[in-house]
Amino acid sequence: MRRKQFGQSSSKLAPDTVQPTAHEFIPLAARQRALILYEDRNVLVIDKPANWMLAPRHWKHTSRNLQRALEIAIQERHAWVKRRNIRFLRYVHRLDAETSGLLILARNRLALTRFTRLFETGSVKKLYVAIVAGLPPKTWHCSKPISLCMAPQPQVKVGRADGKPASTTFTRLASYTLPSSADCSVVLAEPQTGRMHQIRAHLWATGFPVLGDPLYWDAGLNRDKFRAGSTDYPLALRAVGLEYPDPFTRAERRITAEASHFLAAFRAPKAVIETVENAVKNWPTRFGQLPNKRTEHSNRQDIHNG
User: Residue 1 falls within a domain, yes or no?
Assistant: First the structure.
């Protein structure tokens, strides 16, 4: 029998931590799949594989348009769709194509509206794991504004006066040396805003670019010395944690994704992997803090980070 995950109400000091559903996934092209880590009547939370773009269905410039694949599966009534009687699925927020990890899919239009509002008002807490070049401090913060530049390809500029406010907190968990003798570090990133490429751009702007990043890299760093990863994980950035107050039930949800395979792809030692997994498992929460309505109204958030 198929097992679903339906979270239950919990106190503000003990959010409902969701464990992965065994053997449940969405099959995709090229023998890839998106694991279903949480589901209820309003959302699915999946582990998005890297190299899948989030774009409207009509965008046919890639064979890996996740929204298009989902809508075709619904139209053709694939087995996983029929089991759940799904008629509608739409991504609520965005991850870059190269970024893997947690993604919320709304199962109806009301859920899409309510969950989008959660992201816009900063009510969703997000956690990412990044592997960066160099040895950063234990903790640091970047609040440089971010502005979008479309030419020659979509990317962002950091620190310009016309940029939108952006804020990210970073914590270095561990450092290790690649076989090329290059030092790198594993960092937790917690974005307080949701700008395009925010984490990647803020890490680059503070001198610690993400391994495998084709856009934001220091010219003085030998890219070949930091070459790692795999076809499954081309970019060393992964969304591993989401926390939000359920807009329908008011239950507090905490959903996490594993990071061990991701870290192993970038040659992280076993001790480093264990340190990161423990940090994600014990990720602190701050439920009960309502959004500042004045900030929410005047500074509406984007819903795109990694």
Answer: no
List all residues 6 or more positions away from 101 whose beta carbon is below 8 Å from its beta carbon.
Answer: 47, 48, 95, 128, 238, 239, 240, 257, 306
* pTM for this predicted structure: 0.86
CB 90 within 8 A of CB 110: no
End-to-end CA distance of the chain: 36
The pLDDT tens digits of the residues spanning 219-229 come to 889 999 999 99
Residue range 90-112, pLDDT digits in tens: 999 999 999 999 999 999 999 99
What residues of the chain score a pLDDT lower than 70?
1-23, 56-62, 151, 285-306
Q: In sequence order, which residues have a C-beta less than 8 Å from that of residue 152 and are 6 or more positions away? A: none
Task: Report the distance separating Cα 19 and Cα 258, nearest Å.
Answer: 10
Contact at 8 Å (CB) between 300 and 25? no
* Active site (catalytic) residues: 96
Residue-number span of the structural domain to which 113 is assigned: 16-288
Q: What CATH number corresponds to the domain at position 256?
A: 3.30.2350.10
Tell me the torsion sign for CA atoms 137, 266, 95, 241. Answer: negative
